[in-house]
Amino acid sequence: MRIIYISVAVVSITCSLLLITHFGASDYIQRPLIVRSYLKLSGVREFPLFDIVYYIENDNYLKFFDDVIRVIPKTEFIQHGNVSVPREIPLFLEYWKRSKLIDCLNINMNRSKTERYLPVEETVQAMSSLTKYLNGFEMYPMLNGGTLLGWYRECSIIPHTKDIDFAIRIEEHKPSLLEDLQKNTTLFKVKRKFGRVDDNYEFTLIPTNSKKPMIDIFWLYSSQKNSWVGGTDRSGSKYRYIYPRYFAKLYLT
After folding, report:
1. Rounded CA Rg of the chain
2. Contact present, 89 and 21 (Cβ < 8 Å)
3. What average pLDDT does the chain have?
4. Domain range annotation of the chain
5. Helical spans, DSSP H, in 136-184
């Protein structure tokens, strides 16, 4: 995989181009991709050998207009003259795999008015901080359980929910994560841990300086037919929650 981020001047206006070329086993280019900033320019040079994907830049993310809309966190680039390269190319590619934007439904649940247990802004900030921390271990959490339901159904956190649910593919697990968390020098600490790495693994984190939100991390296992996370109740009974098989596919076709 090779990525080149290029900044060029067109009609006296600077725009940005992102060239992504994917190489197969025989170094055959499957699909070149150029990403250009979302500017309407007259006389823009045509690139007949490439697909053009426009994007817009927001405060903390980039939004791409491909065959589907894609959103990735802002990433840092290294500048070499007129050429810019993502500082962390593997991280950029992992973001791209998971970048397809799926709109939430924004359904009004008509609940009786109740006090929200988890404040939305502080909770989302904690989720963002934990995601960045996990990315440093090449782990890429996804929303799971009630947290996924709340976002997709209501575009928010369910008011009466008391924790946040993340899932991470077990293939991404590294012992160094738990070792680092147990040093108590990070923004999060381990509150509890269940199961084994090869079976029903799960642990709960909380911010170091606060008691909430509690964030449950469920490790996602996959077979040929489906994916699943485990659960353990207070009696020690184990459960398995089964989903369609999960995979993150790089969108290059």
Report:
1. 21
2. no
3. 79
4. 6-97, 120-244
5. 145-154, 175-181
Q: What is the pLDDT of residues 134-149, one digit of tens each?
A: 999 999 999 999 999 9
Q: Using CA atoms, how far apart are residues 228 and 221, in angstroms rounded to an integer?
A: 5
Per-residue model confidence (pLDDT) at position 160: 93
CATH of segment(s) 120-244: 3.30.460.40
Q: Flag whether pLDDT at 21 surpasses 70.
A: no
| CA–CA dist 216, 205 (Å, integer) | 6
Place of tokens 């999060």: 188
Confidence of residue 6 (pLDDT cuts 50, 70, 90): very low
Residue with the two structure tokens 């600490």: 189
What burial class does residue 224 get, using C-beta atoms within 10 Å of its C-beta: 0-12 exposed, 13-18 middle, 19+ buried? exposed
pLDDT digits (tens, 9 = 90+) for 235-247: 878 889 998 888 6
Sign of CA dihedral 158, 163, 164, 168: negative
End-to-end alpha-carbon separation of the chain, Å? Answer: 15
- Cα torsion 135, 204, 101, 40 to 10°: value is -50
Q: How far apart are CA 99 and CA 82, in angstroms?
A: 27
C-alpha–C-alpha distance, residues 204 and 196, integer Å: 14
Sign, CA dihedral 62-31-131-159, equals positive
Q: Quick one: CA dihedral 96, 102, 30, 141, positive or negative? A: positive
**Beta strand segments in the chain, E:** 2-10, 13-21, 33-37, 51-57, 61-65, 69-73, 77-80, 83-86, 142-143, 163-169, 188-196, 199-207, 214-222, 226-232, 238-244
Q: Which amino acid is present at 177? A: L
